Amino acid sequence: MSAKPHILVVEDEPVTRAKLVAYLEGEGFEVSAATDARDMKTIVARAIPDVVLLDINLPDDKGLTLVRELRARSSVGIILVTARDDETDRIVGLEIGADDYVTKPFNMRELAVRVRNLQRRVAPLMAAERSASGQFVFAGWRLDCDARLLFSPAGDTVRLTRGEFDVLAALARNAGRALSRDQVHDLTRHDGEAVIDRTIDVLVGRLRRKIEVDPRQPCIIVTVHGVGYRLAAG
Ligand code: CA
After folding, report:
1. Contact partners, residue 114, CB within 8 Å, separation at least 6
2. How far is the CA of 167 from the centre of ligand 1 (A)?
3. How far is the CA of 12 from the centre of ligand 1 (A)?
Protein backbone atom coordinates (compact mmCIF):
# COMPACT_ATOMS: atom_id res chain seq x y z
CA MET A 1 0.00 0.00 0.00
CA SER A 2 1.37 3.41 -0.81
CA ALA A 3 0.14 6.98 -0.67
CA LYS A 4 -1.69 8.15 -3.73
CA PRO A 5 0.06 11.09 -5.31
CA HIS A 6 -1.97 14.26 -4.90
CA ILE A 7 -2.84 16.19 -8.05
CA LEU A 8 -4.51 19.59 -8.01
CA VAL A 9 -6.55 20.59 -11.07
CA VAL A 10 -7.05 24.36 -11.40
CA GLU A 11 -9.61 25.00 -14.13
CA ASP A 12 -12.58 27.36 -14.35
CA GLU A 13 -14.41 25.49 -17.12
CA PRO A 14 -16.71 22.98 -15.38
CA VAL A 15 -16.75 20.36 -18.13
CA THR A 16 -12.97 20.28 -18.61
CA ARG A 17 -12.47 20.28 -14.85
CA ALA A 18 -14.84 17.36 -14.28
CA LYS A 19 -13.24 15.38 -17.10
CA LEU A 20 -9.75 15.93 -15.76
CA VAL A 21 -10.72 14.99 -12.21
CA ALA A 22 -12.50 11.81 -13.31
CA TYR A 23 -9.73 10.72 -15.63
CA LEU A 24 -6.91 11.32 -13.15
CA GLU A 25 -8.81 9.61 -10.34
CA GLY A 26 -9.22 6.64 -12.66
CA GLU A 27 -5.43 6.66 -13.08
CA GLY A 28 -5.00 6.19 -9.33
CA PHE A 29 -4.32 9.77 -8.23
CA GLU A 30 -5.88 11.62 -5.35
CA VAL A 31 -7.34 14.67 -7.09
CA SER A 32 -8.43 18.05 -5.73
CA ALA A 33 -10.08 20.64 -7.92
CA ALA A 34 -10.03 24.43 -7.77
CA THR A 35 -12.17 26.71 -9.92
CA ASP A 36 -10.05 29.83 -9.59
CA ALA A 37 -6.90 31.29 -8.06
CA ARG A 38 -8.48 31.97 -4.68
CA ASP A 39 -9.71 28.39 -4.46
CA MET A 40 -6.27 27.12 -5.40
CA LYS A 41 -4.59 29.18 -2.69
CA THR A 42 -6.93 27.74 -0.05
CA ILE A 43 -6.13 24.18 -1.07
CA VAL A 44 -2.39 24.78 -1.30
CA ALA A 45 -2.37 26.43 2.13
CA ARG A 46 -3.77 23.21 3.60
CA ALA A 47 -1.40 20.81 1.84
CA ILE A 48 0.92 21.30 -1.10
CA PRO A 49 0.04 18.78 -3.82
CA ASP A 50 2.59 16.80 -5.82
CA VAL A 51 1.56 18.18 -9.20
CA VAL A 52 -0.60 21.18 -10.17
CA LEU A 53 -2.39 21.22 -13.52
CA LEU A 54 -2.85 24.92 -13.98
CA ASP A 55 -5.14 26.58 -16.50
CA ILE A 56 -3.34 29.84 -17.21
CA ASN A 57 -6.57 31.59 -18.24
CA LEU A 58 -8.41 32.00 -14.96
CA PRO A 59 -11.07 34.60 -14.18
CA ASP A 60 -9.56 36.11 -11.05
CA ASP A 61 -5.81 35.95 -11.34
CA LYS A 62 -3.27 35.46 -14.02
CA GLY A 63 -2.07 31.87 -14.10
CA LEU A 64 1.51 33.05 -14.45
CA THR A 65 1.33 34.88 -11.13
CA LEU A 66 0.33 31.58 -9.56
CA VAL A 67 3.28 29.80 -11.17
CA ARG A 68 5.60 32.33 -9.60
CA GLU A 69 3.96 31.99 -6.20
CA LEU A 70 3.97 28.20 -6.25
CA ARG A 71 7.55 27.99 -7.39
CA ALA A 72 8.70 30.46 -4.75
CA ARG A 73 7.57 28.12 -1.98
CA SER A 74 7.86 24.60 -3.36
CA SER A 75 9.26 22.10 -5.85
CA VAL A 76 5.69 21.06 -6.70
CA GLY A 77 5.32 19.87 -10.31
CA ILE A 78 3.55 22.44 -12.48
CA ILE A 79 1.92 21.65 -15.83
CA LEU A 80 0.36 24.60 -17.64
CA VAL A 81 -2.90 24.07 -19.45
CA THR A 82 -2.89 26.57 -22.27
CA ALA A 83 -4.81 27.58 -25.37
CA ARG A 84 -3.27 27.51 -28.80
CA ASP A 85 -2.77 31.28 -28.91
CA ASP A 86 -1.10 31.46 -25.48
CA GLU A 87 2.37 30.99 -26.92
CA THR A 88 3.99 33.92 -25.15
CA ASP A 89 2.45 33.06 -21.78
CA ARG A 90 3.54 29.46 -22.26
CA ILE A 91 7.16 30.43 -22.80
CA VAL A 92 7.14 32.86 -19.89
CA GLY A 93 5.50 30.17 -17.74
CA LEU A 94 8.31 27.74 -18.48
CA GLU A 95 10.89 30.45 -17.83
CA ILE A 96 9.52 31.23 -14.40
CA GLY A 97 9.38 27.62 -13.28
CA ALA A 98 6.55 25.60 -14.84
CA ASP A 99 7.79 22.10 -15.72
CA ASP A 100 5.64 21.28 -18.71
CA TYR A 101 2.55 22.39 -20.64
CA VAL A 102 -0.32 21.01 -22.67
CA THR A 103 -2.41 22.82 -25.25
CA LYS A 104 -6.19 22.53 -25.41
CA PRO A 105 -7.67 20.36 -26.77
CA PHE A 106 -5.37 17.75 -25.26
CA ASN A 107 -5.32 13.99 -25.23
CA MET A 108 -6.24 12.73 -21.74
CA ARG A 109 -4.01 9.71 -21.93
CA GLU A 110 -1.00 11.74 -22.93
CA LEU A 111 -1.74 14.22 -20.18
CA ALA A 112 -1.93 11.43 -17.58
CA VAL A 113 1.48 10.14 -18.72
CA ARG A 114 2.95 13.62 -18.39
CA VAL A 115 1.45 13.98 -14.91
CA ARG A 116 2.79 10.57 -13.86
CA ASN A 117 6.29 11.27 -15.17
CA LEU A 118 6.46 14.64 -13.50
CA GLN A 119 5.08 13.30 -10.23
CA ARG A 120 7.80 10.63 -10.16
CA ARG A 121 10.44 13.23 -10.84
CA VAL A 122 9.34 15.58 -8.04
CA ALA A 123 8.47 12.84 -5.50
CA PRO A 124 11.88 12.83 -3.73
CA LEU A 125 11.94 16.64 -3.62
CA MET A 126 8.42 16.82 -2.24
CA ALA A 127 9.14 14.18 0.40
CA ALA A 128 12.21 16.13 1.52
CA GLU A 129 10.29 19.41 1.65
CA ARG A 130 7.43 17.90 3.59
CA SER A 131 9.65 16.29 6.18
CA ALA A 132 11.63 19.53 6.55
CA SER A 133 8.35 21.26 7.36
CA GLY A 134 7.26 18.49 9.73
CA GLN A 135 4.81 16.88 7.28
CA PHE A 136 4.91 13.15 6.70
CA VAL A 137 2.73 11.26 4.26
CA PHE A 138 2.28 7.49 4.40
CA ALA A 139 -0.39 5.26 2.86
CA GLY A 140 -2.61 8.29 2.27
CA TRP A 141 -2.26 9.46 5.90
CA ARG A 142 -0.67 12.78 6.71
CA LEU A 143 1.06 13.58 9.96
CA ASP A 144 1.66 17.25 10.69
CA CYS A 145 4.27 17.40 13.44
CA ASP A 146 4.08 21.18 13.85
CA ALA A 147 0.32 21.22 14.37
CA ARG A 148 0.48 17.78 16.05
CA LEU A 149 -2.38 16.51 13.89
CA LEU A 150 -2.97 13.27 12.04
CA PHE A 151 -5.19 13.32 8.93
CA SER A 152 -6.82 10.22 7.50
CA PRO A 153 -6.76 9.53 3.74
CA ALA A 154 -10.27 11.03 3.66
CA GLY A 155 -8.93 14.23 5.25
CA ASP A 156 -10.45 13.80 8.74
CA THR A 157 -8.36 14.46 11.82
CA VAL A 158 -7.80 11.44 14.03
CA ARG A 159 -7.34 11.86 17.77
CA LEU A 160 -4.10 10.54 19.17
CA THR A 161 -2.84 10.60 22.73
CA ARG A 162 0.46 12.33 23.33
CA GLY A 163 2.27 9.00 23.57
CA GLU A 164 0.66 7.65 20.40
CA PHE A 165 1.53 10.81 18.54
CA ASP A 166 5.16 10.76 19.67
CA VAL A 167 5.64 7.13 18.68
CA LEU A 168 4.07 7.70 15.26
CA ALA A 169 6.16 10.83 14.72
CA ALA A 170 9.36 8.94 15.62
CA LEU A 171 8.51 6.20 13.13
CA ALA A 172 7.46 8.72 10.45
CA ARG A 173 10.70 10.70 10.78
CA ASN A 174 12.52 7.43 10.10
CA ALA A 175 10.09 5.96 7.56
CA GLY A 176 11.47 2.89 5.82
CA ARG A 177 13.99 2.25 8.62
CA ALA A 178 13.61 -0.35 11.35
CA LEU A 179 13.76 1.15 14.84
CA SER A 180 14.29 -0.83 18.03
CA ARG A 181 11.95 -0.24 20.98
CA ASP A 182 14.81 1.51 22.76
CA GLN A 183 15.33 3.83 19.82
CA VAL A 184 11.63 4.68 19.70
CA HIS A 185 11.71 5.29 23.43
CA ASP A 186 14.70 7.63 23.13
CA LEU A 187 13.11 9.49 20.21
CA THR A 188 9.94 10.16 22.18
CA ARG A 189 11.63 11.78 25.17
CA HIS A 190 11.10 15.47 25.77
CA ASP A 191 13.50 17.52 27.91
CA GLY A 192 15.31 14.41 29.03
CA GLU A 193 12.13 12.98 30.49
CA ALA A 194 10.32 9.98 29.04
CA VAL A 195 6.79 11.05 28.18
CA ILE A 196 5.47 7.56 27.81
CA ASP A 197 4.98 5.32 30.74
CA ARG A 198 3.52 2.39 28.85
CA THR A 199 5.46 0.14 26.63
CA ILE A 200 6.05 0.95 23.00
CA ASP A 201 4.18 -2.23 22.06
CA VAL A 202 0.96 -1.03 23.70
CA LEU A 203 1.14 2.31 21.91
CA VAL A 204 1.88 0.66 18.57
CA GLY A 205 -1.11 -1.66 19.14
CA ARG A 206 -3.38 1.34 19.72
CA LEU A 207 -2.01 3.19 16.70
CA ARG A 208 -2.62 0.15 14.52
CA ARG A 209 -6.25 0.03 15.61
CA LYS A 210 -6.59 3.64 14.52
CA ILE A 211 -4.75 3.59 11.19
CA GLU A 212 -4.48 0.06 9.83
CA VAL A 213 -7.17 -1.46 7.60
CA ASP A 214 -6.61 -4.77 9.41
CA PRO A 215 -4.76 -4.21 12.71
CA ARG A 216 -3.94 -7.93 12.92
CA GLN A 217 -2.15 -7.75 9.58
CA PRO A 218 -0.53 -4.34 9.75
CA CYS A 219 1.00 -2.95 6.60
CA ILE A 220 1.69 0.62 7.77
CA ILE A 221 3.46 0.01 11.10
CA VAL A 222 5.26 -3.22 10.33
CA THR A 223 6.85 -5.47 12.95
CA VAL A 224 10.52 -6.16 12.25
CA HIS A 225 11.19 -9.41 14.07
CA GLY A 226 14.10 -9.28 16.46
CA VAL A 227 14.36 -5.49 16.07
CA GLY A 228 11.19 -3.48 16.57
CA TYR A 229 9.04 -1.52 14.16
CA ARG A 230 9.23 0.17 10.82
CA LEU A 231 6.82 2.61 9.19
CA ALA A 232 6.30 1.64 5.54
CA ALA A 233 7.80 4.40 3.40
CA GLY A 234 5.66 6.19 0.80
CA1 CA B 1 -9.92 29.00 -18.36
Report:
1. 79, 100, 102
2. 46
3. 5
